[in-house]
Design a protein that fits this description.
Length: 276
């Protein structure tokens, strides 16, 4: 059974030359699995994720023929419905934690507020849950980070705190927008293990937005490849090396190789028909 159904999703923004579609006809179903969305910057990956959660920034407009989460029509959802879904059952890890964490609240206060808002419980219980979550994302001194403000943390530490906040309620759907881009390899692996556990044990649906084709091919079950706002190819992650679309093959061939020569990296030759 599908957890999320998206049909003909389109996101438009006004411009001096008229409306511009940055997401064009995206369609997919998501079950209790790991779905990767890859593509270069500006391909519409992040706007797709934001539109699913009703977070398209004005004056942008998101429309779809179908947009359902667990049987709930998100196109007609009112503010009260969104309040019960966002944070508790649907979460999104934004690409840059600086724009997602409240600068005048400590990390701990934000984690406790998130837990109590959606799960209730006593303040002491919420604090223990928050500390456990900080420890789970490989923060060595969770009590220090719990008492710290966002500006006191490094980029990688802030990213881990943001991931902890989004996972503390163990949502049914998590949209992760480059969640490990600011993390070193060892911490990246631990964070991916947490996400993998939630998918396997709790049946969470995960959308991983990334430009890292190697990460997506090894971690995800399926992959959507986006170019110029639309999906140009959908395939199993294990079959990424056998991609048929020249854009997907071009992206993969442009990855640096340790055993390669000293010649320049290949340049992706684009075709006008890809954007049609």
């Amino acid at each position: 059974m599908s957890l999320l159904r998206v049909e003909d999703l389109r996101v438009r923004f006004p411009s001096r030359q008229g409306p511009v579609e940055v997401v064009r006809g995206v369609t997919f179903d998501l079950g209790r699995e790991r779905l990767g969305i890859v593509g270069e910057s500006g391909s519409g990956k992040s706007q797709t994720g934001r539109a699913i959660l009703g977070l398209t920034p004005p004056p942008g407009v998101a429309v779809a023929k179908r947009l359902e989460f667990d049987g709930i029509d998100l196109r007609t959802a009112d503010k009260a419905t969104w309040r019960t879904l966002r944070g508790a059952r649907m979460s999104m890890v934004m690409q840059d934690p600086k724009f997602s964490l409240n600068p005048v609240m400590t990390i701990g206060k934000q984690l406790v507020e998130c837990w109590r808002l959606h799960a209730g419980g006593q303040k002491g219980e919420a604090k223990e849950r928050a500390l456990a979550m900080l420890e789970a994302v490989q923060i060595r001194d969770p009590r220090r980070v719990f008492a710290a403000y966002p500006h006191e943390l490094s980029g990688g530490m802030g990213q881990r705190a943001m991931i902890a906040m989004m996972l503390i309620t163990e949502p049914d759907l998590l949209i992760a927008d480059e969640p490990t881009s600011a993390l070193d390899v060892t911490v990246q692996i631990e964070v991916l293990r947490i996400l993998d556990r939630l998918v396997r044990e709790r049946g969470m649906g995960l959308i991983l937005i990334s430009h890292d084709l190697r990460l997506v091919s090894s971690f995800c079950d399926r992959v959507l490849v986006m170019y110029a706002g639309k999906v140009v190819e959908e395939l199993r992650a294990s079959e990424l090396l056998n991609a048929k679309h020249p854009y997907t093959r071009g992206l993969y061939n442009c990855l640096p190789k340790i055993d390669g020569g000293v010649r320049p990296l290949p340049v992706l030759q684009r075709e006008a028909g890809w954007a049609e």
